[in-house]
Structure formats: structure tokens, C-alpha cells
């Protein structure tokens, strides 16, 4: 769905993602929508924020595990 409007004389578009009713019925709904029939920009921004946080946590975990393995290898060799 695309809604066109203007702010301060400049046009901009507002987008949202709608799930077709027949898809919700045939796929037993989408659990991630939590009962919503559409996703708005705010929902996508929240998802992006959470995905970025998860990526950071996984990166930190991998970094710590790599450092631990490196220290174990040096202690075994030395």
C-alpha cells in the first residue's frame, strides 16, 4: 500500500506491508505479526534495531571464543 502526501510542500510516501487475507488463512497466520494485518515503518525499524543488537552480541561471542581458542593453543604449544 502506498500513500502519497506532502510535508512542507515536499512530497513523500508512506509505505506499509500488508499481508493478504487469503495468505493469512492458508498459512495459518504469521506468528511474527502478533495479530497485526500490516507492518509499518516503525515495526521495520524496531526489527532492524533488534537484528543489529543480535548481530553485535554474536560478533562479541565469536570474538571471545576466538580469543579463548587462541590462548588455549598458545598455552598448549608453550
Q: How does the SSE layout of this entry go?
A:
Layout: E1 2-7, E2 10-15, E3 17-18, H1 21-26, E4 38-39, H2 41-77
Antiparallel strand pairs: 1-2, 3-4
Kindly describe this structure.
The chain is of the alpha+beta class. The chain folds into two domains: 1-39, no CATH class; 41-78. It is built from two helices and four strands. It has helices spanning 21-26, 41-77, and strands at 2-7, 10-15, 17-18, 38-39. The strands form two sheets. It has a two-stranded antiparallel sheet. It is elongated, with a radius of gyration of 22 Å. The mean pLDDT is 76.
Number of helices, counting only DSSP H or I runs of 4 residues or more = 2
**Helix fraction?**
55-70%
Name the poorly predicted regions: none
**Total beta-strand segments:** 4
The strand order across the widest sheet is 1-2
**What is the number of domains?**
2
- Helix and strand content put the structural class at alpha+beta
Mean model confidence by pLDDT: 76
Q: Which short descriptors sum up this protein?
A:
elongated, 78 residues, two-stranded antiparallel sheet, 55% helix, alpha+beta, two-stranded antiparallel ribbon
Amino acid at each position: 500500500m502506498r500513500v502519497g502526501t506532502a510535508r512542507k510542500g515536499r512530497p513523500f510516501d508512506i509505505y506499509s506491508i500488508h499481508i493478504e487475507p487469503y495468505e493469512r488463512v492458508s498459512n495459518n497466520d504469521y506468528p511474527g505479526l502478533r495479530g497485526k494485518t500490516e507492518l509499518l515503518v516503525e515495526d521495520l525499524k524496531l526489527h532492524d534495531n533488534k537484528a543489529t543488537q543480535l548481530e553485535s552480541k554474536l560478533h562479541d561471542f565469536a570474538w571471545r571464543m576466538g580469543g579463548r581458542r587462541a590462548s588455549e593453543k598458545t598455552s598448549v604449544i608453550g
